[in-house]
Design a protein that fits this description.
Blueprint: H1 18-40, H2 43-64, H3 69-80, H4 88-111, H5 118-125, H6 127-149, H7 161-183, H8 195-218, H9 223-233, H10 238-256, H11 263-283
Helix pairs in contact: 1-2, 1-6, 1-7, 1-11, 2-4, 4-6, 6-7, 7-8, 7-11, 8-10, 9-10, 10-11
Length: 292
């Protein structure tokens, strides 16, 4: 392991807090939940995806600016027809808004609120609508990971493995949510007979992606990336990462799935583990030090 004291005083953590960690977690749960809903198509799952998507979007907007500033900026841009399509943040906010609108429309149709017509019910029951909702959900989850990769100077995050890791952990948390809804009777068991087998493969893929992410960081030529990896393995984020994300969030659910044990606790651990994974990776980000 490297000694952080060898760095100059200019090395510092990125300091992205829990607001962003919760945003990344909620958007991943909503996005991959809508992806899986293409096969489930139950209102309980859609309601969860709607709430988590809207709350996650509000969190990132509140982090960027005052929430009331965004509608005024949107109205001004529409009136002046001036859109910054070169901004990844602008593209991302648009994607998140589309995700929120799709899930909210879906929920309203299920609840029989506002959109009560037969045409609306046929629309959300159609394959093409659900495929569009699934594609938007995956894109929103990828964007939440891509957002980190664009952070200048934080080399731990500057890897294409982050979006893939977010997809895998988002899928794991969405599968955990489906299992909880099935156990509580809100989703018919016969509709999700594939959930345990799918969860097993998802957890295996997540573990492999975590290993690849850590391996790339520890073998990096960047001092900040190696410092971030040390923070995850033996530093201040080790407990959250190794115990919370890896052991409780992936290994325990993975070990219990083949024999059918601890399904309930494994589902909860998978959901919480996705949050702890995002938080630990987020908090372990260090800016590349300037060596004099």
């Amino acid at each position: 392991m490297m000694d952080l004291s060898d760095f100059t005083a200019q090395v510092q953590a990125a300091h992205w807090g829990w607001t962003i960690a919760l945003f990344l977690w909620l958007v991943g749960l909503s996005g991959m939940g809508m992806f899986l809903n293409n096969w489930v198509r139950e209102k309980a799952l859609v309601y969860v995806c709607t709430i988590t998507g809207i709350v996650g979007t509000l969190l990132v907007v509140s982090h960027l600016t005052r929430i009331l500033n965004l509608p005024m900026a949107a109205i001004s841009a529409l009136l002046e027809m001036s859109f910054n399509f070169g901004s990844w943040m602008f593209i991302g906010i648009c994607l998140l808004v589309v995700q929120c609108c799709l899930t909210l429309f879906y929920s309203c149709v299920f609840a029989g609120v506002i959109f009560k017509g037969e045409c609306c019910r046929k629309l959300v029951a159609g394959d093409w609508f659900n495929w569009i909702a699934a594609a938007v959900g995956v894109a929103a989850t990828i964007y939440s990971g891509f957002l980190l990769t664009q952070a200048v100077g934080v080399t731990l995050w500057n890897t294409a493995l982050i979006p893939l890791l977010w997809i895998m952990s988002g899928m794991a948390s969405a599968m955990g949510c489906i299992e909880l809804l099935a156990i509580s009777g809100r989703i018919p068991h016969e509709k999700v007979l594939w959930s345990r087998r799918t969860s097993l493969w998802v957890e295996a893929a997540e573990l492999f992606t975590i290993f690849a992410f850590v391996h790339v960081a520890t073998s990096s030529t960047s001092a900040a990336a190696r410092a971030g990896a040390e923070a995850l393995l033996s530093g201040p984020q080790a407990m959250m990462f190794l115990v919370g994300a890896v052991l409780c969030g992936s290994l325990i659910p993975f070990a219990g799935l083949p024999c059918g044990s601890i399904v309930l606790s494994g589902a909860v651990l998978g959901i919480v583990g996705a949050l702890l994974l995002r938080a630990s990776v987020l908090f372990a980000g260090y800016y590349e030090p300037i060596l004099l």
